[in-house]
Amino acid sequence: MVISPDLPSIPFIMKNGVKYFELIAQPVQREILPGLYINAWGYNGSTPGPTIHVHTGDYVNIRVYNRLPESTSVHWHGLDVPNVMDGAPGMTSSPEIGPGNYFDYQFQVTNPPGTHMYHAHMDAMRQEMMGLQGGLIILEPNELGRIHRDYFLMFQEFHVDKQPMRGYTPGVYDLDPHNMDYNFFTINGRCFPNTKPLEVCTGENVRIRLSNAMETAHPIHLHGHQFYVTASDGNTISPGQRLLKNNILVASGDTWDIEFLANNPGQWPLHCHIPHHMTNNMSKSGGGMMTTVLYR
Q1: Model pLDDT for residues 65-93, shown as the tens digit of each residue
Q2: Domain range spanning residue 19?
Q3: Which of 7, 191, 209, 210 has the most CB atoms less than 10 A away?
């Protein structure tokens, strides 16, 4: 089972061999730090949106309701879908979804198992930077026992308006999606120390799926362990070509799968290595785009 810490997984209803999902694009309030809420856009009440789980060969119907004040769409990033289902209006035959309307994205999942994303593909500068993205995982049906822990992480950055020069003040704040002076950096919609640890046990094989649909690249570093890079953009890397690393750059549009053996007990940071991104609005106490691998 793939776990997305601090995020729900979206349920489905099976009808006549088709998996039916519902996504609601809407304004959301997200508590990124204790008492600090952002007025963002997301899906089903969350940014990032809920994680979608499917299998290769599934027929899916994903109904997207638009409760935003402007038209939107959803692009299935990395999936090989029919042109009309791609979610890029104006560049493909896929339609816009007007405010108050919905559209059924219908396709068969033909990609092999891997890590993918979904995100808005209209006025991307505004809609994506307001938080309209989420994870889509094509599950591997026959790997029970090989991977003991499987986590999905999505990285985001925001410019939160009207904050002090350093640190943060609890309250509800608007975002400025056009301001590239980002001051809060999140994993699954939370800033450290508000992120949920990735729990492991000694001897387990652990996979972490890393994803980024926003503006800035993030070099992600794991303390205390070396990891193998096992997949890129949802495509498995053959064992003989895997790199052994402890730091990997997750650029905009990337997904990477990394795997490591939990063989060094303790609590270990997993974080973006850019110093600015390890702060909560330049607070001296640190924070930002960081979580921990925690041995139970």
Answers
A1: 999 999 999 999 999 999 999 999 999 99
A2: 13-123
A3: 191
